[in-house]
Amino acid sequence: MTDKLFWTDPYLREFTASVRDQFPASDGHAVVLDRTCFYATSGGQPNDLGTLNGKAVRDVRIENDRLLHILQQPLSDPQVTGEIDWARRLDHMQQHSGQHILSAAFYNLFQA
């Protein structure tokens, strides 16, 4: 199981990790890490984008209880440095928080 660093520090922008597995995927190459700060699409919130060892992460998703980082090509190193697209993450965090505030206001004011 991948340690999800974003649960303990949603402001983390960079991290190091070990590659646990790699395999071809229908839309690129899947990489499974021992730890990550990349958020996978879930709960109505889109996934993070960024890089692993300078290679673009095109998608992040959960399949068969594994968090997959989708790249164009496999990684050659067993250790990686990951960096998320901070502007995208911050925008998603703000929109997500705003939606909770708006939903609470609708419920409190209109029971809707």
Task: Give your account of this protein's structure.
The chain is α+β, with helices and mostly antiparallel strands and 112 residues long. It has one helix at residues 86-110; strands at 3-4, 14-25, 28-33, 35-36, 50-52, 55-63, 66-71, 79-84. Strand 6 and strand 7 form a beta hairpin. The protein is elongated, with a radius of gyration of 16 Å. The termini are far apart.
Number of strands: 8
Strand % is 35-45%
Low-confidence stretches: none
Radius of gyration: 16 Å
Large-scale geometry: elongated
Q: Estimate percent helicity.
A: 10-25%
What class do helices, strands and sheet pairing give?
alpha+beta
Widest sheet: strand ordering: 2-3-7-6-5-8
Note the main sheet.
6 strands, antiparallel, barrel
What is the tally of helical segments?
1
N-to-C series of helices and strands: EEEEEEEEH
How confident is the prediction overall: mean pLDDT? 94
End-to-end separation in angstroms reads 38 Å
